[in-house]
Amino acid sequence: xxxTKSLMTQDKPIINKKVLLKAFKLMCTSKRMAETYDxxxxxxxxxxxxxxxxxxxxxxxxxxxxTAHDYASLYYRDESILLGIGIQPYELMLQLLAKADDPFSQxxxxxxxxxLKREGFPIIPHQSSATGMQAIPATGMAQxxxxxxxxxxxxxxxxxxxxxxxxxxxxxxxxxxxxxMAVLKKLxxxxxxxxxxxxxxxxxxxxxxxxxxxxASGFKHMERLRVDGADFVNSYLGIQKAFSYVRERQGPLLVxxxxxxxxxxxxxxxxxxxxxxxxxxxxxxxxxxxxxxAYLVDNGISLSxxxxxxxxxxxxxxNDYQRALQAxxxxxxxxxxxxxxxxxxxxxxxxxxxxxxxxxVMVDAALHAIEEILKSHPEALFYGQDVxxxxxxxxxxxxxxxxxYGSHRVFNTPIQEAYIIxxxxxxxAVGAKxxxxxxxxxxxxPGINQLVEELSKSxxxxxxxxxxxxxxxxxxxxxxxxGPYHSGSIESVLLSIRGIKVIYxxxxxxxxxxxxxxxxxPNPVVxxxxxxxxxxxxxxxxxxxxxxxxxxYIIPLGKARQELSGDDSIIGKVxxxxxITYGMGIYWAKAAAIKFxxxxxxxxxxxxxxxxxxxxxxxxxxxxxxFILTEEPLMNSFAExxxxxxxxxxxxxxxxxxxxxxxxxxxxxxxxxxxxxxxLPNVSKVEQVLAELLxx
Length: 696
What we know:
Elements: H1 4-9, H2 17-39, H3 41-44, H4 56-65, E1 71-73, H5 79-85, H6 89-96, H7 135-152, E2 161-166, H8 173-185, E3 189-195, E4 198-199, E5 202-203, H9 204-207, H10 212-216, E6 223-228, H11 232-247, E7 253-258, H12 277-284, H13 288-298, H14 303-326, E8 359-360, H15 362-376, E9 380-384, H16 401-405, E10 410-412, H17 417-430, E11 433-437, H18 445-455, H19 458-461, E12 470-476, H20 491-495, E13 501-503, H21 508-520, E14 524-530, H22 531-534, E15 546-547, E16 561-564, E17 577-581, H23 585-593, E18 600-604, E19 607-609, H24 613-623, E20 626-633, H25 638-649, E21 659-663, H26 673-679, H27 683-694
Parallel strand pairs: 1-2, 2-3, 3-7, 6-7, 9-10, 9-11, 11-12, 12-14, 13-14, 17-18, 17-20, 20-21
Antiparallel strand pairs: 4-5, 8-15, 13-19, 16-18
Helix pairs in contact: 2-4, 2-5, 2-13, 2-14, 4-5, 4-11, 6-14, 7-8, 7-17, 15-21, 17-18, 23-27
């Protein structure tokens, strides 16, 4: 690959004339689109948007060279890349105006936020507009491509991933996580950094000590290339070399493209608010359009031909704008569509208790479920902190899997919860099926950003085109001396995130059946696994060890299980109640119910979202008393929310207020075991609440 210096100083060769004229036409198109939006601010400014003015040269150079086999992760200023791959101005305007036929989101998300799965075009999965966050899912795509080539054979088309970033976004920590994995695994990805020296109203000097090109030098094996992002020929040749390098599987590469910013940051943050005349004039001198026009004239293209092309572009934009104005708005009835992609797992199947099967503890049921998945699905892989190598997880929940299936399928990651979670979005987009683990629930917080912005919204904002198949395992809960960073419960935070599913098995059979269903579910599923139940060593939890179900056993998500039934001969004659719980709460409830023989039903939710409201409703109306038991602190929790729902929907059936019991409202679990016991629910506390409820 030529050095940066040689690329920048070589004489400009003639690129195919059709390519050059197409670039000129689309630059004229892009310019006229921006002008049209500005001239019609009252209409076009209703929804915030950015344009690509100043960035057209580098973006068209990229768009022209992406193939139908490639993947792209674009950011909000990349409309010229979209024009370059063949998206029409009319289609972009439909998104600008949030129309029903917006091809990316059906009116749900901002301009130039594409979600594209169309024959003959690069695949562009949904991504948020949070700058820099796209680097992790994009790198996950590249890792997924590499993995599938390892297990299915090399793809002759040599697909690559293009991740587009602004230079200001490179200061985000999640970009560093992505780049670390890219160089560690030598992934097939090009990071395009478009540097216009502005980050909203902050200048480059305010935001960074070095630009992205210099910063990337710290990532060993990251090849780097500088191009003039305002010069189409230079940009085209640079991207050509960059793509060739990555298609040859030599590793990741960063292209740093210096561009002028000729438009506003966004329609909501206009350039005249924060940029002086001197800065605007300086950037205008580097406008890519007159540069390309002069180059074309120097190479024999007549001004009359260029004027004709410019007029044609203006006419297209004018006509497309009028058509877009007349297009239908979305039917408001569609607002709730695509929260989740439909799953085929709707019924329990297989044998829960096959004859002559042995009992297993929960951790082994999980291990066996993962192994059965890996055996049957070559596209499946498992990764996280310490799950690979010889350890196989700090709880031995992946023991022997790396040795059996190879370090390309079962492997350790750096301490990068954001990458572990966010990469699954990219993996899913390319057809890999990731199972990942966050080592402890208390460590999930760095990954919440990706879970919220990338995973949870993808299906909804792409209008169903890009659901994310992601199974995220999270050991959770207190188990005797784990202390403040290994004992927390986090389900209420997770359940406040729309667009993800959350499950919580309490025994080995449910562990296996739910894990299989979660793997086959096309949506993001977080599986909470109580560490205190893994080995059935905590007193009172022996029943978490069960007969191991058959290989094909599966439990649909959203179905509760009656763990203990009341005595129908006395229910209705004496006060009775249902305890609604999950996880460790099952075992506190079962032990406490012994004192109230026949008067207590225990409902194991198993799935917290989707939740089995029908089972809850039936049980509450049967007993007229409800008790919600959780290991979490109660204040502002899932348990309180559920109690409120029961109180609202079942009010006329209740003979007593809904009772709750959870941990004390404190910020962490203390290390000392006696302090831990004092903070958490236990059998005697459950007995006391039961007595009060039944005597009410």
